[in-house]
Amino acid sequence: GDVYKRQQNPKTPKPHSHQPIAQSGFKDNSPPRILMIVRFISGPATPKGLRPFSTFINDTDLLQQIYGYYDAAIKHLEQNYSPLIPIHRIAELIKVPRSVIKFNMPFRRSNGILEVVQGFKAHHSYHQTPCYGPIRFTPTLTQQEVEALSLLGTIKNSWLDIPFSGGQGGVKIDPRKCKRGELESITRRFTLELARSSFLGSAIDVIGTDLGTSKQIMSWAKDTYTYIFGHSKLTSDSCVVGKPVSQGGIDGWEDAAGLATLLSMAEFLNDKQICQKYKIQPGLKEKKVMIHGYGNLGSAMHKLLQEQGAVITGVVEHNGSVWGNYGLDYNELHPHWKKCRTFAGYQKGNFVKGVNSEEVMKRNCDILVLASAPCTINKGNVKYLDTRVIVEVANVPMTIAADKYLNKKDVLILPDVIMSTGCTIAAYLEWMKGITNSQAGLLKVGWENTLRKEILNSINIRDTRGELRLTERSLICLLYTSPSPRD
Predict the structure, then answer these.
(1) What's the predicted TM-score (pTM) here?
(2) How far is Cα 3 from Cα 10, in angstroms, rounded to an integer?
(3) Cα(362)–Cα(378) distance, rounded to whole angstroms?
(4) Looking at residue 162, what DSSP letter applies?
């Protein structure tokens, strides 16, 4: 930017060498993307391929953490598959998002105070369309966080083979300090800005729920898109997912994320080779589990794991922790948390104030479920962990330094790109339901008739419904019925 200004006006002084980049045209302290491009073009080609982006990685910077994981994966590909795959120089282009937009939105509180709220939206790639970009409302949201999560979204969609590319968006606001009318106002304004900038549409970008957002917010977003632009029901239903069922959503959205994590955990922990390698007992029954983060996903994991016979011995939150040697009952703990928003006063557990207290972090458990904020487990507190399995449910809950430390201790780490994909799958089903104007259970044409007949013949049941007994007729109806939306 400074070079362009000096070309237009030779009298423009050069910036001092010690002047930070944030004072040379960048509005915030975002990574210098221009310097990345210059280094990529002018750097000499090396037979090994890419060089590391940075020799220093901030242990709490989400963007640098995801880029660090990405560079490690590319290094592995170059060392093992470079003769087969043209990785050289292409990986750096895939690494950065294609489009990032920032909004400064005027926002009036219910008491009449006028504020300016920032909103962000990133499209990581256009190799598949539309982009799927969940929307989060958090007071600490930054552009770097949005860019990082958009790259993570592309990776998840790719390995799931879902025809979405990665995206992410959000508003820098604390929804816990906003009234209902204020949330509706900022949601409708943000939806308007996205649509006017061509960052929202059934074939462009699909938004969904994330941290700090809910079905009600998605319903407001859909209503705004429909009312202002007058699009048809098919278009408006498919550009927003995570809606209430009455507004075109699908039944079971709330359970999708937790259930996908549970099924993935069962696959790993029932594999005899994996359990033997990491010296753990197969299965989930009677496993001692500690949950870090008790939001929608953390509480859902509490319920599902308890139903599978696991014992929840501790829950950690930002305002305190609770633990019990004989387990914490979901039916008693969750209503207390939902009412008080704290574990203080819970009579059937030991309350500890502070999220990083050594007393809670040092307690032994078989499985640690990370369902809280990014970079929760870092080099400062990883040494307190005493577990054999770590399940990453949140996005990048563990830093690279912590990951290396635990790998040296032979701790099984189940990564978030595999474990936290339930909402992505549910988003695809709801998008298909809206864009095809059909029920989710009818997206699959049906089971093949020949397969049904083979199943019936194998159990010696004739395919004549009139002469069957009640139990046999029920089996026939089950085989000839398409799956429901919840299925």
Answers:
(1) 0.76
(2) 10
(3) 15
(4) -
